[in-house]
Write a structure and sequence with these properties.
The protein has about 150 residues and is mainly beta. About 10% of the residues lie in helices and about 35% in strands. The chain has one helix and ten strands. The strands form two sheets. A six-stranded antiparallel β-sheet has the order 3-2-5-6-7-8, with no helix packed on it. Strand 7 and strand 8 form a beta hairpin. About 10% of the residues are buried.
Length: about 150
């Protein structure tokens, strides 16, 4: 009798382990990685303004629609990472560098359609401005991180 219960239990486990969790189909098999943007602040000579302590990672806050997009950073980071958040078209981000300095950053984004669209949304950056100055986006070696270099004179 005990053997019969064990066999029934094993069959139930096998049946439920084959179930499509949450109706995700193929997407249940994919580990998603979020699209991340990295902002590097440099001066006219190319010195990193985070590495030389002009700006501190602890005080930099990036928001869109009052939602903070950057999270905790490692002290060794010389760029500010933030997760993509936006829609097609112009998306305005506020960047608070410290108690007295706040900048505005605008990305013109186009949503990338993926099949099947399990993760994302992911975007292509069409253009970018920082405090109304046009900036160039560096081609990324990592497909999930877009690097944006900002030249500032503190």
């Amino acid at each position: 009798m005990k053997l019969k219960h064990n066999i029934v239990f094993c069959l139930i486990v096998i049946l439920f382990s084959c179930k499509d969790d949450d109706g995700l189909g193929e997407c249940a098999l994919i580990d998603c990685a979020a699209q991340i943007f990295a902002i590097e602040y440099i001066d006219a000579e190319g010195n990193n303004l985070i590495a030389n302590d002009t700006y501190s990672l602890e005080t930099i806050v990036i928001t869109k629609d009052n939602n903070q997009l950057n999270s905790s950073q490692l002290q060794s980071d010389e760029v500010v990472y933030f997760f993509s958040s936006g829609t097609n078209g112009d998306n305005t981000y506020n960047v608070k560098l410290n108690e007295t300095e706040e900048d505005q950053f605008v990305l013109a984004l186009t949503r990338i359609k993926l099949e099947p669209e399990c993760c994302g949304p992911y975007f292509t950056i069409n253009s970018a401005t920082y405090n109304d100055a046009i900036i160039e986006i560096t081609a990324s070696e990592n497909s999930f991180i877009e690097k944006i270099t900002i030249v500032k004179s503190p």
